[in-house]
User: Fold this.
Amino acid sequence: MKHDFIDRYSKLESPVHARDARAKTVALFAIVIACVTTPPRAWFAFCIYAGLVIIITAASRVPFRYLLTRMLAVVPFILVVAVFVPFMHNGGESTHWGWLTVSTSGLLILWNVTAKSLISVSCLILLTSTTHFPDLMHGFEQMHVPRFFTLVSSFMYRYIFIIVDEAERMKRARDSRNYRGKWIWQAKVIGFMIASLFLRSQERAEHVYQAMTARGFDGTYPRWTESKMFAADYIFMFAVAATAIAGRLAVLWT
Amino acid sequence: MDVIPIAPQVAIRIVDLSYSYPDGRRALNSVNLVVHRDETVGIMGPNGAGKSTLALHLNGILSGQGLVEIMGLEVKKKNLREVRNMVGLVFQDPDDQLFSPTVKEDVAFGPLNQRLSPEQVDHAVSRALAWVGMEGFEDRSPFHLSFGEKKRVSLATVLSMHPEIMVLDEPVSNMDPRGRREFIELIDTLEATKLVITHDLAMTREVCDRVVVMDKGEIVTDGRPEDICSDRLLLERHGLI
Assistant:
């Protein structure tokens, strides 16, 4: 079965793809941190962050369309959390639109949440779609992210689609036998499916562990190759991080 | 004076091995088996005969009552590291065997556990991948490989450790005819003591020097593949045809 991979487009060739995972991680996280700490009225700073994201995306040849569709994943959360805020009266300035009362401070909160989450999420999407996932984990390890975290993520990357496939096959088998009926019955069937998926995953985990011990695994995961940062990686990292931080600092002086 | 050890001629010696699963089900019942060096032995039997359970005893993943010796070394906790370096187990489902994000990392996993130097690891990886004809797949994710390719890489993950003994659990099940034929040829070229667990009569005839039939946790026959594969009564009695 075909799946849309977490690191789709990570195999493209571009100046951004060629950079070391650590350089990209530091640079993009600098944008995220600068962005989330910026006061909502600092429009200029947000333009800088968005500009950086757009320039990096263009340089990476990752289609903007893809970036936008991936960003849609967070829109529901923004909608749920923030979209009602402007309509709640919490004093201060407000505008009347027919029978609706919109508070200015509420609007500002909506803008703040929307801008920050979209910019942050697009940074993360850029990081994963310009870095091959194993390289990203490798970079994290070199940055001393706990081994446990990178190991669990690597296993997730390897097995998530096998589990999705299993779920899909179970769904087909269920639907082939004319699955329908009252919702309470359906809920029961779905419950059984989840239980069986859990058991299968656990069994899989046991087998994988056996295969690992058979090859001498003793709980420690030895390191192998260490990737190196070159001048271009440092230049990219400092240029992006410095621009983002400059945008953030400029807010303090205005 | 140094004593130069003579390479033992017996690769695997199993004496009176019994094993019960935690739920009390008897999986192996006083199994005795001797496999000589460079022999290829087929282990046949119906599902649930205890073939895979036996395989898991060879490198100490399971341990029952009785004695298991690998190249003269008893399989027990103290010797596990050495035993696992000598016995390479290739599991039936390649998705169990290949757990790393890339092919290269998976093939390097065994050599890294052997604490080889990075150059030696590189060498072992490229040699093993070349052996199974999978050069150029180093950076691919195992998930993107075809079933036959996954099987080949699984074999490479064990070959890279240079085991003296290879244990292959159902190596050609679920493979299409061409993949099956090519994989059998590949197995035939491996230089090691081989234990092949299978239901596949044709393959046993092709690659094995000797066949052991198991049923209900016991070894019922031990003989030449031609004799066993032509004994219809025996095959029928043990659910092999």
